[in-house]
Amino acid sequence: MNKPTPFGKKTFAEYEKEVNDYKEFNLSKVERVELSLIGDLEKETTAVKNQLKKMQKSADNFLAAKKDAISEREKSFTISQKSFKIFDKLEAATKELGLKIKDIPAYNELRKVQDEIIKVYQTVPSK
Length: 127
Hints:
Radius of gyration: 40 Å
Number of strands: 0
Oligomer: single chain
Number of helices: 2
Order of helices and strands: HH
Shape: rod-shaped
Helix content: over 70%
Number of domains: 1
């Protein structure tokens, strides 16, 4: 087998040795690259898992706060409806007496609070 090949002056054994050396050299590079990529992938997987935990906690907190805000929104609506009924009665009573409703300090203060409730009410979603 030490005869020259039709491809040149090298023998089959020499070609075979070069091919084997080439495979060993290239495979070791590929293996190093693959191991490096696996390490990178493991680090990224850990980072993604940690971020998922944070996101889940934030989502849970958000949903709890949203539920609470919706509940408070409904309570505010109910209370405001009661105060509007009192306003109507008070306004009728003051007209009968010839007074101005705006001269009553409690009316003015409650009116301001109701305006604030309406502003906040509009920012909270209904569902």
